[in-house]
Known about the structure:
mainly alpha, MetI-like fold, single chain
Amino acid sequence: MSSHADSLALPSPGRSPARAALARLLANRSFLIGAVLVLSVVLVAIFANWLSPYDPLRSNVRARLQAPSGLYWFGTDHFGRDILSRVLYGARISLTIGALVVIVTGIFGTLIGAVAGYFHSLDNPLMRLMDALMAFPAILLAITVSAVLGASVPNVVIALSIATTPHTARIVRGSVLVVRELEFVEAARALGAGEMRILFGHVLLNSLGPLIVRLTYVFAIAILAEAALSFVGVGPPPPAPSFGSIIAQGRDFMATAPWITLFPGLAIIVSVLGLNLLGDGLRDVLDPRMKA
């Protein structure tokens, strides 16, 4: 009898940190909803070739400005191009721009923030440069850079990366400033580990939580900013469709053909909402201050 009671009193084996984090993610409603929305948009972009009923670049003058119907689910634009097909292919371009901005911002923002936070001598000059860039509104800075470089997808990526890197660098720097003072960093230094090994092998790996959350918001910002750049004429050049370029091309027909801007606008809402919910869920799990 006592042995049975003792067995009941024994603690169950603890879960690994990775499994515990995964369990918290799966229990987080914001993360699940955001993941479903983002995954849906990603799948639409990947399979646009099979999902699109028409060629998104093919004009059909006889079908211009057709309202949504059984033949054209999202209607047509002033060139007779199918809006549904253009939105599906637009998801591919907009998500590609967002993903590239995340990669570039993640690399440069992480390097600048990590070096500034770890090496005292480089902190002040690097952060003053980031402060100078942050003094300009991000969208105004992106418009200026894109206008100077010219309208193209690579130039949009460069412009948005320049606009989003400073804040990312400051977030990484803040995390590095905290982690570098922890005991395990001092232990690694006492064991003879080099500064670069400590920075990239210990400090930076333990500072990734806030960075991951930040990059989900960068993705959402990039999608919104691409639409803004396209609206003012410095985004991806036509006829290639993106969410922003479709809206820009339909702005002169908002009174007579509102569906041209309505459906890409809804696609932006779904994409950005999904990324924001995903970021909120990741923040709840990865930010120690949010844990109960």
